[in-house]
Amino acid sequence: MSRPTSDSTLALAARHALVTGANRGIGAAIARSLSAAGARVTLLVRDAARGEAVAATLPGPTAVVVADVTDRDALLAACAAAAEALGPIDILVNNAGTAESAPFLKSDDALFQRMMAMHVMGPVHATQAVLPGMLTRGSGHVINVASVAGLMGAPYVTAYTAAKHAMVGLTRSLAAEVGPRGVSVQAVCPAYTDTDLVQGAVSWIVARTGRTPEEALHSILTDAGQSRIVTSEEVAEVVLALCTAPAGTPVGQAIVVDGRPPVIAR
What we know:
By secondary structure, the chain is α/β, with parallel strands linked by helices. It has 2 domains: 203 residues, Rossmann fold, CATH 3.40.50; 35 residues. Strands 3-2-1-4-5-6-7 form a 7-stranded parallel sheet, sandwiched between helices. Helix 1 crosses helix 8 and helix 3 runs parallel beside helix 4.
């Protein structure tokens, strides 16, 4: 589907952005933000119907491709289909993700492998698919949506936290390698955000403790040292700021989004 835009003054006019996990939450908010800034946006999703529903709300040209990011072959095929539909990919947002919790001694190999496949190897394969073109053109943006869990520890999410730490490490190392060649690689690290994942955590606490949803959310935020929940739109604003940052902006940053003004080095 395509709805062309004629406003060439938009910051991302003529740029093609591919957003993984774009059918809800943070991914959908990022897609809306980039589209409003003039980008052609491809939503890479597992559920085509939900992807099309989000695409219908975007103001600019869109495409929807379907893949599970943990399936390398399907992911590479989806990236190729996106480029065929809307042109070379200038912006890649590795956003797809999920969280599973368990005490460390009950976290089996399969749990660690699922978290690494989703949060590390998915971004690795997607980036490998689009990076050659970016390097040839001497420009591009890779934004990895990590988490504050990629910068600190927390109980009962060892596998998820290990994977997000690896994602931040991937960002920093790749930025050092390709930053000098014109490709910006950055990480965005949201704190607890208004997503289905947080609502699931709230429901889990309510079911096991008898607390109200409000009390459960308050306990989550208090334990995290967070004064309020972050909105998906706040995360999207940081992604947009990185995609429109001037040349020379430091790369390899891991920018925390926790309700306070984000610090983006310039």
